[in-house]
Amino acid sequence: MFDLIIFLVLLSLGYGVGQYAERRHYRSIIEREGRLNALPAIASRYPPIEPHYGQSLVIGSTVVSVDYFKRFLAALRNLFGGRVTSYESLLDRARRESLLRMKQQAADLGAAMVFNVKYETASISKGRGNTIGSIEVLAYGTALIEQRRK
Amino acid sequence: MKYRNPRIPEGINVSDRHPLKELLVLAGGALLLLVLLSWLLGQFGGRLARLLPFEHEAALAPVSLLSSDAGPELQAYLDQLGGRLGSQMAMPEGMEVRLHVSGGDTFNAFATLGGNILLYRGLLEALPHENALAMLLAHEMAHVEHRDPIVGIGQGAAIQLVLGLLVGDPNLAVLGSAGLYTQLHYTREMEREADTEALTAVQGMYGHIAGARDLFDVIHMQRERSGREEMPAIFSSHPLDEQRLEAISALARERGWSETGEATPLPAAFRRWLSEAAARAAEARAMPGLATSPSSRVGRLHRG
Question: Do B23 and A76 touch (CB under 8 A)?
Answer without folding.
Answer: yes
